[in-house]
Amino acid sequence: MSYFRAKPTLQASDAKLVSSLKSLQNFDDVASLLEVTPKHLRYILFEKKVSGYYKCFDIPKKSGGSRKIWAPQGSLKILQEKLNKIFSLTYKPNITSHGFVKDRGIVSNATVHLRKRHVLNFDIEDFFHRINFGRVRGVLKSFFGMSWDAATVIANICCYNNVLPQGAPTSPIISNMICFNMDMEMRKLAKKHNCHYTRYADDLTFSTTRQTFPSAIAHLDEERVVYLGSKIQKILDNNDFAVKKSKTRLNNRDQNLSVTGITVNKITNVERNYIKKVRAILKCLESHPLSEAQKIFESKYYSKPGKKNAEIMNVVKGMISHIGYVKGKQDPIYEKLARRYNRLAGIETLKVGEAFLKDWSQNVFVIEVGYDNSGVFDPQQQGTGFFLKDVGFVTNHHVVKEYIDDPDIYEIRVHRSRYNKKCFQAKVKMYCKERDIAILEIDGFNITGFDYDLINYDGQSIKVIGYPRYGHEDSLFVDQGTIVQYRSEFMRTIYNKKTQELGLYQERIICSARIIYGNSGGPVINTRGQVIGIATKGFSNVSKKEEDDDSSAASYLVKIGDVFDMIGEKEESVPSPVSAI
Fold it and tell me: What is the pTM of this model?
């Protein structure tokens, strides 16, 4: 392999890369792992000035000031990107770490602290600069079992001016490795005092539902200055970190509770002023020509002398996307802002409303239960079903009751209506009559399905999706509403582990969205598009005229958590061809 023919992407298999990483002994081994010649690697590290590989620039902080970024260039960047991939194949991040981790982020970090009574936030000062060459070398040796010589070579690739540079591809994952033991100690301390702990990069958070925040972790003095407990301080000292005192705060639920910039008092939310600013920028764009709106924008918000200013359309698009990321893209506020932006842009660049129908139509099906009548399928019962991640095809028990009672006569057929007319036969895999849940088995499908969330609460925005009163090639029905009440129903035949007797209460949800006959078994989603329940009972007609409905009717849904309770009980019982609980 010549100097110039080294490929920017790794060619070896993942298994080979992991095996090679754990057996690194010397300089040549590192070069081989990175698929470059030793001569090439030596040139990058020792013959060319390392400073020539880094570009330095500042990015503004939301809190004011700027953050210095050292971004690698050229061959060094390629080596770091390769190392980042190799590290990620074997390194498993701590459960408390949410920064720079796949499928985690500021929202998952904030969600841990949702609806707590007290929240403590504090930052580590000069986070990346406190991680020096020696610490990087040591953690590579301890985590991967490589020799000191190999760890020294890799540390040279990853460090600049003796520290971990903020902006390098390898810095995030290495910083999480460095903090692994600290996170374990912090989590242990939090658990001891009935608290929750998370870390997002240099931002550490503790929260609790206790009446008072544990003084062993932190306390407020008479002047409301926050002091961290001695055990917290000791953990930080032992890990060579210091606290940025100006960023330390301890608040209770009567105040604004925020974690990584997200409000967590009741729901994960963005600050009101942030949304007000977005609305103001959109109003400016709607009221003035683009060039004039840009000038107003620069004079009020962003102005950097001597530098090219950010374009107003790009900035507001990013701000709206952030709102959608935090609140969910089914959130009414996000949808209104996104639609306003799309009208201004003249093209639907932000996904809203009906744009999600394509995704939903892949996972939501019409269910018809009937029998063969002289070679023609005659449906007697109709409902809705959907694929759920980690579970399979879910619907209500009452939708497929006829099949369960007499499978020799009845059959179940499912299809996607106008979105795909192909019909599939289904069988019942598992059911619970009292919970009104059934899981079906359908051959020929490899669908991941909807994600889910076990959290639900009063006032939560939801959408009901399905095929009410299905006719012929109907489109998906979607109705929006909120959770308005919780009601308990007694299940007489379900075993109660607490009382060790038969009889258990099931808490069902009533929502303001309209659940209609035929919608039963369909998904009810939150603002993130995650299923929180199954549409179960409601009205007889789509019409909202009073005379068309029973005055006592209401829209009920079964919590998605009940599906997992049913599965758990099934796994503890003796298996049967069609499992009933």
Answer: 0.69
